[in-house]
Amino acid sequence: MTTYEQLNGAVALASNSPGMPTGYGTQGLLLAERMIRHGLKFAALSNYGLQGVKSTLDIAGTQVPHYPTGLTNYSVDVMPAWANDFAAKNPDLKTVLFTLYDVWVYNDLKYDEQIVSWVPLDHITLPPGVNKFLTRENVKPVSMSIHGRDQLHSANIENTYIPHAIDTNVFKPTDKMPDGKNVREFMEVPDDAFLVGMVAANKANGQIHRKAFAENLLAFAIHLKKYPNSYLYIHSEPSRSYGGFDLGILLRLVGIPQENVLLPDPYVLRNGYPDEAMAAFYSAFDVLLSTSYGEGFGIPTIEAQACGTRVITSNFAASKDLASEDSWKVEGQPFWDEAQSSFFQIPSINKITAVLEEAYHAERGTSKIAREFALQFDVEKVWSDSWMPFLKDLYK
Predict the structure, then answer these.
(1) Three-state DSSP class for 343?
(2) Which of 20, 86, 106, 324 is a good FRET partner for 229, with 20 to 30 A between their CA atoms?
(3) ∠ CA 259-262-264 to the nearest 5 degrees?
(4) In angstroms, rounded to a whole number, what is the distance separating the alpha carbons of residues 251 and 226?
(5) In this predicted model, what pLDDT tens digit does every residue of 226-262 receive, in sequence order?
């Protein structure tokens, strides 16, 4: 049996509930599993994933407190009370509130104890609301991308760079679904077809969509006219249920025929596809199309490359540092985000189209270069190289 170095302290993680099928939920679970493994007491403070009643989560064989969402946006109203309640249950331990979410939402947070913020930074310029929170005396910033690290350093904000991570023993090249069926057969896509994948949450404010669905779909529509044996798999909720766009309307308007579009099973999507199934989907793609207005990290780009699939992403924010040498990066132009008084960057439709054509003619199959690139983000490597030194210093 492996013996793990033990840490002495407590963590209250404010984020999506660990294990939720979201980027924050998956990262929260990976973090929680290892924190618990190394002896830290852990509690989940949910801003999405649990409503109405306090519960528990089984993480790594341990029952941990699971506090529900509040009445205000992002649970800012209850977060201090939940953190204090958890601290009171562990009076002999140093309790630290960790946030894994956009920090501008916490500027009304009334909490004076230690906060560690694992923060996404997805704009060209540092949003004032982010600057305001991260310069609080009790906040210790952790950047999740090289872009974020450098942007904070430029603003004279000390921070520690620790990237997001994935389990590369799960996300690896495969041609089989978990039940053993060939993945392209399962998807009903011909072996010789050019399959483009998109894995992006269809969540927005109803007007601006950070995941650039309109730009990506229009570019694919232009590509499809020249290369009709191309298919697009969109791993996302197609309706406006989460405040995003009606993808059905958008697909029709840009001219992508229904027979060239594949969507996930809606029931399974709501509950979350198992990682093994996602690895199969990624492996089946000839390329992942993942340009956006800006990413704080962009987990699907690393998951895809771990499965040997090259990506098309933005040469901007976190994305510019998350593409292998044989992947493609798309330029764009600044776009003003009035809500955060900062600039995003819109990817160029013409350049996405050109890169899709280049990918179409490129050698297909598993990319060893992409896989090797993604291995640096393996969860155990990131944990041992980055999180353990950070936590040992935090709880010394």
Answers:
(1) strand
(2) 324
(3) 150
(4) 17
(5) 999 999 999 999 999 989 999 999 999 999 999 999 9
